[in-house]
Amino acid sequence: MAAAPQPEAPPRDDSAPGRWSDTRTRSIWQWQLVLAVAVAAIAVMVALLTPTTFTRVVFDAGVGLLILVSAATIAVPWRRVGRAAVALVPGLDIVAIGLMAAGSDGMLTILWVFPVAWFATYYTLPWLVAALSAIAVILTIDTLTAEVTPTQTLQVTVVLLSLVFIGLTIATGSRRTRAFSRLLSRQFTQLERTLRRVEAQEKRAMALFNSVDTALARVDRRGVIRSSNHAFQRLYSVNDAAHPHPTTAVEYDAYRGSPLPPHDTMISRAARGELFEDRRIWLFDGEGRWHALDVTTSAVVSTADEREVTLLSVHDVTAAVTAQEEKRTMTSVVSHELRNPLTAIIGHVDLLLDRDGLPPDVIEKLTVVENAGQRMERLIASVLEKHKPTAPAAETVDLRRVAAASVDAFRPAAQNAQLTVDAALDADLFVSGDAFRLRQVLDNLIGNAVKYTPRGGHIRVDGRRVQGEVRLAISDSGIGMAAADIDRIYEPYFRAQSARDSGAPGTGLGMVITREIVEQHGGRLEFTSALGRGTTVVLHLAAHDEERTTP
Is cis: bond before 11, omega within 30 of 0? Predict the structure, then answer.
């Protein structure tokens, strides 16, 4: 049934829609409507089966009273009426039913169940006793005004006992329901307070989590980043923890070395539960900067509803490594600059010692200076040898391996976006150049194809050797760009209108850096695109005949 008709604050609007939205008013209407519909159905049956019943004045009076009460129920603004006044409605219903049942065989007395249930549900026991007492008085008067028979007396007794049983049963159930409702309300309030405390603690924990300079990420056994702080997100160029992997930041085994394969990245190793400490890697971020990282993993106690998690702690030690390198460089420079004047000093001392006729004490002093200079020269030589830089060796790059590694790195992100990636690469794709920089070119081109191709799209990488040059084409069925934007793609910080409309993040520097690297290798880029029909970029590089690959 509807909620209890408790008194509430005065309404702002007494219109019908406003009153119907009030729970208390709606409850009163529903109780009275059920009884009114039952009486209307009985009146119809009486008119069809025993129309002479309408000749009884008391029956007509009872029906009329019930109709008036029902009409008044709809008209009265119950939000402004007290609880005692509401009791008049079921009380008048008892009188109306008594008039209808007067002088009959007692079948209509069953209608008293409605007002009795009303009192038992929403009022205390004294109210219910008063209602049952009123019914007993009406039955007694009706019995005394007619001929008293044992059957009629038994019928009155059964009706009263039934109504008492029904009323007490409903009252007991209502009290239990109200007690249970109050208990649930208190528990809900306590749960709400506990939830607010937990949320406040979580916010404080996240604030602390994000305030530390160390990059932190929690990785489960599926390789999913459950949470990460701002330092990790900035370092790995991601917007949030749900960003697909790999990101635009690439991990390398050494500075300008080889990129780590997907199964050997820090996230993959953490997903396997590997525990290690201060593992040094190099990260090339999305803005083209190098970072020296010391990575540590540790096990995290998991809960029953959470998968086993590994904590990934990443310390950016670039400043320390750079300072150490600068110290070595400075040492080498200073040592080299000291060596030149020292050589001149020793040389002139030797010239002086070659002269004849020098006094013994002068020869002794010059010899001391010469010996000291020679010791200093040996010290400088040892420092220079220790910090002697090694020049990078020229490379013959297998562009097929570089392209395949880049495709493999972006394949998880493509699968996450429901993209298909195909690669058709000839075996003889050798070029001269820097494998690291060429990988940077391919990562940028393939990454753009993945980023700007909608779900269900297709990406293809084709590598061919044609007339002394290697041609690598990256095609996609993505958003493409307008013809007016194609001529501006190499402008710093320029992004095509279609790229800006897509909402994909970007700086507008990727193609500038890519073209610069390609031109340093003596190559060129061929760029074609159509708005809504995709983009094709062809990389042209001079082929190299020596078939040896970089490690």
Answer: no
What value, to the nearest 5°, has the Cα angle with vertex 290 and ends 288 and 296? 130
Tell me how far apart the alpha carbons of residues 440 and 443 are, in angstroms, rounded to a whole number: 5
CA–CA separation, 103 and 436 (whole Å): 107
Mean pLDDT of all residues in 430-437: 86
The answer to whether the beta carbons of residues 248 and 288 sit under 8 Å apart is no
Query: Strands 309-316 and 215-220, how do they pair?
Result: antiparallel
pLDDT of residue 513: 81
Contact 111, 35 (CB under 8 A): yes
pLDDT exceeds 90 at position 473: yes
455's CB contacts (< 8 A; 6+ apart) are: 417, 418, 419
**Pairwise CA distance, residues 46 & 107, whole Å:** 12
SS3 label, residue 481: coil
For domain 212-316, the question of CATH label 1.20.910.10 is answered with no
Residue showing tokens 């010239």: 351
Q: Which residues pair with 459 in a beta bridge?
A: 421, 476
399 contacts 253 by C-beta, under 8 angstroms:
no
The separation between CA 336 and the C-alpha centre of its own chain, rounded to angstroms, equals 57
How many Cα atoms occupy the beta-carbon half-sphere of 68 within 13 Å? 10
Instruction: Return the DSSP state at 261.
Output: P
Contact (CB, 8 A) for 235 and 249: yes
Domain topology for 396-542: Heat Shock Protein 90 (3.30.565)
Structure tokens given for 300 = 């995290």
Q: DSSP character for 489?
A: T
Of residues 478, 451, 452, 496, the one with CA closest to residue 534:
478
Do residues 477 and 529 lie in contact, with contact meaning Cβ atoms separated by under 8 Å?
Answer: no
Residue labelled with tokens 């709809």: 74
Measure the CA dihedral 262/265/271/274, to 10°: 130
> What pLDDT is stored for residue 5 in this prediction?
44
Distance, C-alpha 542 to centroid of its chain:
47
Q: Look at 139 and 387; give whichever has higher pLDDT.
A: 139
Do the beta carbons of residue 395 and residue 432 sit within 8 Å? Answer: yes
Tokens representing 193?
A: 């307070």
Residues present in the chain in total = 551
Residues facing 535 on adjacent strands: 476, 529
Q: What is the mean pLDDT of residues 110-130?
A: 88
Dihedral of the alpha carbons of 175, 176, 180, 183, in degrees to the nearest 10:
60
Confidence at residue 11, expressed as pLDDT on a 0 to 100 scale: 43
d(C-alpha 435, C-alpha 419), whole Å: 27
Distance between CA atoms of residues 217 and 247, nearest Å: 15
Q: Where are the beta strands (DSSP E) in 224-383?
A: 225-228, 250-252, 279-284, 290-300, 309-316
Q: What is the pTM of this model?
A: 0.40
Give the pairing type, strands 396-398 and 430-432. antiparallel
